[in-house]
Amino acid sequence: MKAWQLTGFGLDHLVLNDIPKPEPGPDEVLVRVSAVSLNYRDKLLCDGKYNPHLELPITQVADAVGEVVALGTGVTRFRPGDRVVTNYCTRWIDGQPTSKETLYSLGNTLPGALAEFLALTEDALAAAPAYLTDEEAAALPCAALTAWYALVEKGQLHAGQTVLIQGTGGVSLFGLQIAAALGATVIVTSSSDEKLARVKALGATHTINYSRTPNWENEALALTGKQGVDHILEVVGGKNLAQSIEALKPGGQISIIGILDGFDSTIALFSLIKKQAVLRGISVGPRRALEDMLRKFDELKLRPFIDSVYAFNDARAAYDRLEKGAFGKIVIRVRD
Ligand SMILES: NC(=O)c1ccc[n+]([C@@H]2O[C@H](COP(=O)([O-])OP(=O)(O)OC[C@H]3O[C@@H](n4cnc5c(N)ncnc54)[C@H](OP(=O)(O)O)[C@@H]3O)[C@@H](O)[C@H]2O)c1
Predict the structure, then answer these.
(1) How many angstroms separate the CA atoms of 43 and 173, rounded?
(2) Ligand 1 atom closest to Cα of 168?
(3) Whole-structure pTM over 0.90, yes or no?
(4) CB of 38 sitting under 6 A from ligand 1
């Protein structure tokens, strides 16, 4: 079968190879992949920054939708013909992870889904919502669950609260969509006025251009009558985290999700103490939360914002797009 594999670090080492079609082992299903979506983590993996000890060559990409075409022994949750999506943390089913459940992800420690077929434990799969196209379903798993788990499950977000969303990437636009659907006031930051106009049309109440207003936390305070915001999805990291603490309401919470500006932060502990703020690391979420989220998306008929769709043979161009700050999700169609 055809598979896009990383044979070394750097995008020049992402190559289309012919490799043996996998066989489903015990408790595994064989999925014919229909579509996948990219996450910023896929770029970090290519660059050797996500896992410098990656065992090469390895098929890339974690988020996928496809059709179950064969079953290994002992499979009980799926049948041939079922349409399924992958869960990012393949071994995290429910509850708090106790050990290394968050380390087993496709394209990293396990062969990924940017291939014609994928053999995977049935525990790492959820039923794909019928109302979504393959491209839309492929866009959901990692980014949407990260925003959902942070805001809804851990954050207990409710109507009337204020959420600040940083940028207009995959996680952020799902954060906007979920928060707006649940009745929150949403402030979105972006480097682009054109993107800010688009998020207003998608439900953002207020917008801030962080390039023109580098001290965006002051603007967030002004927009909330100096009260501050209840929740922040921190996708930027680095020095941005200190600004997020300043923008927070007393008792507010920051979900630490991304490292777009760096892996290390220096923060003012006294600000944190005075506000009794909560900083919480987020590692996507368990399959049970993915299933909860998919039910809610189905109930509200929420559709992911898709930036662009690429053909399988054009996967390198999709990665190039990832470098350029897409508005929403980048999808690769694997099966025509
Ligand atoms: N912890 C987890 O479970 C988890 C899960 C998923 C993703 N992540 C991480 O979360 C981050 C975002 O991932 P993604 O896949 O959503 O990325 P993405 O789709 O590539 O989003 C990138 C966007 O981030 C925005 N951005 C960049 N620098 C910014 C800054 N200084 N301030 C505000 N916004 C900024 C830009 O928006 P504008 O163009 O609008 O300026 C850019 O388009 C990454 O670090 C990723 O590794 C973590």
Answers:
(1) 19
(2) 40
(3) yes
(4) no
